Amino acid sequence: MMENWISRLASALKSSERSINVVIADWLTLAHHHYPIAAQNTRTVGQDIAHLLRWLEDFKQFPVGKVHLIGYSLGAHISGFAGSYLAVSGKTLGRITGFEQTVKCAHERAVHLFIDSLLNKDKQIMAYKCSDDTAFDKGYCLDCRKNRCNTLGYDIKKVHTGASKRLFLKTRSHMPYKLFHYQFRIQFINQTDKIDPTLTVSLTGTLGESESLPITLVEEISGSKTFTFLITLNTDIGDLMMTRLTWEGSPMWAHMWSTIKTMIPWAKSSRGPQLTVGKITVKAGETQRKTTFCPQTDDGMYIEPSQEKVFVRCEKPQGKRRMMKYS
């Protein structure tokens, strides 16, 4: 009995592409063996598919160049062998898509991401070239220059390259899987005392506002440092207009410090823990737009426990006016 994802994929292909024929290769009798034997049988199945496609082109005038082979796990190997056998006779397949079993994601997740790209064409997932998970989680890789990013799934852009690429992305746990990626950079300056605060941030755009998202700092804040990390949103909030930074301190601490300052005269001139924010920059991976935020008020760069500060888009400085001489 075939697995459920096969019929789901066939239905998604037919609903997405109206003029299409979907043919399913049933090789269950050759697949239900120990893995080494099943893997060896993939060559035979690939050769049979190549024979069928040659016959369709030679006797039914259906060009091999219009064929798209899709395979999962050993089925991906079958597709590759079919393409190799056709290449020997000078014929080239239109496209091959192979899915491998993933380790970190759920079983068959790659297949379901492909189905998602067919059913939700208005929510195409973007993936980015990166060296490893650590760099991606810091938001370093949201760069689309020189084909460093691509859409995932059926409508992937064809890029001619001599080497394979590792593309990274974040997804939701259910369909539609698309998430919007942002690189968040925040600079703290002139920090004399080491502080390990609990911070949250929210983004506001022309289409909506995000929920409060926790910021995970890998080390204490001291001196002048810039922290960079990746945040993801479920929905498109449009062009970024504002961000809110909150130091999630205890209200009891804020009340206690206020009480101490009223009771002890010398405490009025001192202050409790405080952070000084230099600059906040956010880059949207999907649009490649970078936005710099400045404090909304004069004292907005200083934040204390239990406080929320608002940062708005920085106004671009006007260029110097050219001096004109009149005679």
UniProtKB/TrEMBL annotation:
Query: SUPFAM superfamilies annotated for this entry?
Result: alpha/beta-Hydrolases, Lipase/lipooxygenase domain (PLAT/LH2 domain)
Q: Tell me which UniProt keywords the record has, alphabetically.
A: Glycoprotein, Heparin-binding, Hydrolase, Lipid degradation, Lipid metabolism, Secreted, Signal
Report which reactions are catalysed by this protein: a triacylglycerol + H2O = a diacylglycerol + a fatty acid + H(+)
EC number(s) in its UniProt entry?
A: 3.1.1.3
The protein's matches in InterPro entries, at most eight in alphabetical order, are given as: AB_hydrolase_fold, Lipase, PLAT/LH2_dom, PLAT/LH2_dom_sf, TAG_lipase
| PROSITE patterns on file | PLAT
Any Gene Ontology CC annotation: extracellular space
GO BP, sorted A to Z = lipid catabolic process
List residues of the PLAT domain: 180-313
Any matching Pfam family: Lipase
Question: Where is it located?
Answer: Secreted
Broad EC category: hydrolase
Q: Name one GO molecular function term.
A: lipoprotein lipase activity
The UniProt entry, under SMART domains, shows: LH2 (SM00308)
| UniProt family annotation | Belongs to the AB hydrolase superfamily. Lipase family.
Q: What is this protein called?
A: triacylglycerol lipase
Q: Which organism is this protein's natural source?
A: Labeo rohita
Traced from the root, the source organism's taxonomic lineage reads: Eukaryota, Metazoa, Chordata, Craniata, Vertebrata
